[in-house]
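Lecture 7 notes. Example A: sequence first, then its structure tokens.
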Amino acid sequence: MTARALRVGFDGRTLTSPAAGVRRYVRELTNALLQLGEPLQLVALGGSGPVPPPIQRQPEPWHPPTNLGWTLVGLRRAALGAALDVYHGPAYTAPAWGVHPLVLTIHDVSYARKPEWYPYRRDLARRWFYRTSAAAADRIITDSRFSQREITAAYGIEDSRIRVIPLGVSPRFTPANGGDSVQPAPGKFYVLHVGDLHPRRNLGVALDAVLRLRGEDRAFADLILVLAGVDRGVVTALAQRAAASGHPQALVARGPVEEAELLRLYQGAAALVYPSQYEGFGLPILEAMACGIPVLASRTPAAEEVGGDAALLLPPDDVSAWTSALRAVLADAHCSADLRQRGATRAALFTWSRTARATYEVYRECAGML
């Protein structure tokens, strides 16, 4: 007798979310879930554009014509009309009442733990809504043990309701074949940062390290810092900083990039620099390792979980340490090769298949199928 398919719904709008990390998580997770071969039916609630088969689409019912109206009214109505076994909110928000069992993914709680990085008035409402969604969830999924502790500290949610499920690396992220790479300018080389450009990403430290190397050593006179991600209000100040140093060409902000270009940027980089002061996980660390480039990251709890001993972990605000480490990686072939090898081994431990399997078990737990 064939087992009845577990019917799981999620917010279909997240497939086209303006947040690149949310889009990546939803697309990779849903694809990996479908590849498990388990009796599972995924339903995208609302959203526009095609959905990958065999995911079903539940049309949006009437709701106030705002994002908040969709989440508070339309999403709840769509979930109730879809006859779900489980609803999964893949990014921070969920219907605040009436939809159960409810699984919610919270990638990090920087907005609650470090509100000084989010000074805008609208974030007060967002922080309230995130807290309310977390309180309503039957189970919370988060990416790291660090985020689990932070969620408990921010919201008072007991550990028994939180499941730590690390993210994975897509098989698309591989080292370059034949040196095919994107270069910001002919004959120049670069270090790369990937991710939305928030103040907490602490990119002034990476830029200062690049500027010091350019000024101190002719071998690095053409070194560039390339930023791939949506500017959240920091690029203008960084560009002014580079110009004031006499090296305006040391910074290239590419903005958001498509998947194919992102892969080539990884493959062509001399190193990934990730000086963030706060992360819930840090997926670019793993993607860079999978692409065969050395990783320099801040010594933060999440980066330690993700990078292990395969990344150079540095004090977030020590420009001298970043400069010295970057010099070593760029000038010492043995150091670079060692980091590449260790990084490839580390990245192979994190797969979307493992993420999907653990997530599926959370669905079964919430649906009372264990």
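Example B, a different protein, same format:
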Amino acid sequence: MPRAPKPLTTAQIKAITTPGRHRVAENLYLRITNVGGRFWDARFTVGLKRRWKALGEANRVPLQVAKRLALEIHEEETDAVTMRKFGTVWHEYIEHHAGSWRSAIHYRQWIQTGDDYVLPVLGEIPVGDIKPFHVVEVLRPLWKDKHETARRIRGRVALVIDYENARVGADRTNPADFRYIKNLLPRHRQVEKHHAAPTVDELKALLATLGDDPSHQCLRWLAMTACRTSEARYARCEDVVDGVWTIPADKMKGGREHRVMAPWQPTGKGLIFHRKGQALSLNAMRSLLIKREIKWTVHGIRACFSTWATAEGYDSRLIENQLAHADDNQVRAAYARGDLLDQREAMMRQWCCAISKFVCYDFDSLTKTIPIERKNATGWR
């Protein structure tokens, strides 16, 4: 975005003699008539249309006074555009965008944080009247103890304000922009936290005790593929073909189709793991760990796999592909279009043998697991 030109000095303004409007400061212009008259004009926007308002003769109104009047008129006229109350816009934004959110959890979080924190403070204020200190009033009670929640709320408030500004065509700064509120909040020292992860031996010990309950089987599937919770919960029989599990793009965090070797070949149709036809709840596997007083998390299994694979000397590209992590290097990502499935197969064979007393494929039907004692020298087939 190009930088706005610097305001002109008094000497520079006096040197202007060409008829027309000449920008001298933000929202302030010098208008020179064909007969040499010099006047101050303020510029502002109503909807998507530019408007002008005369401020008087330049010879009578000092430059600093003209700048102040131009700024006041710009703010008054812009905010005079019909802007609805924040609460109304908040709910409309959710209604318009909920269909594009892949997770129902995201929708519930918007509703809950709005009801609990945002709307009690901002709900009845017109969007055009919201100032940075209003936003800070929402964030301050959460800033220290629930910093991540506060950070997300600030982003949501900013999105809603941008939405309303775009609707009415208002050219105004966003009071929820972190640049305007960071000095009003205490400095937060970011402490990086990671999901608690098991060791390979701890994970192997757990898997050895799992039974036939759907949540147990789902956790075993997740561990053997190093996939995410939602990907395992919504795994379908028809997505597994010839031992390869193709996860649809709409079930992936990155929104791209992903292939991994399946731990076993499921039979039938529909969800692989379900209770009476319904997908397992979000916390089904987490509850399993909590009941056993296990401190590490389900997501920590992915970290366990990554640590193990790195220690075994596998290429980082294979590990990151298995975890479905996007490459931060955009140029490299643009050229690396394969998913390295064939190369990942050997790695996942060894991983499954490291954490389970079963290997993943039946040599004949691919429908059941085989005790590890029957595996051949290659460890898989």
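Note on Example B: Confidence is low (pLDDT under 50) at residues 359-381. The first strand starts at residue 20 and ends at 25.
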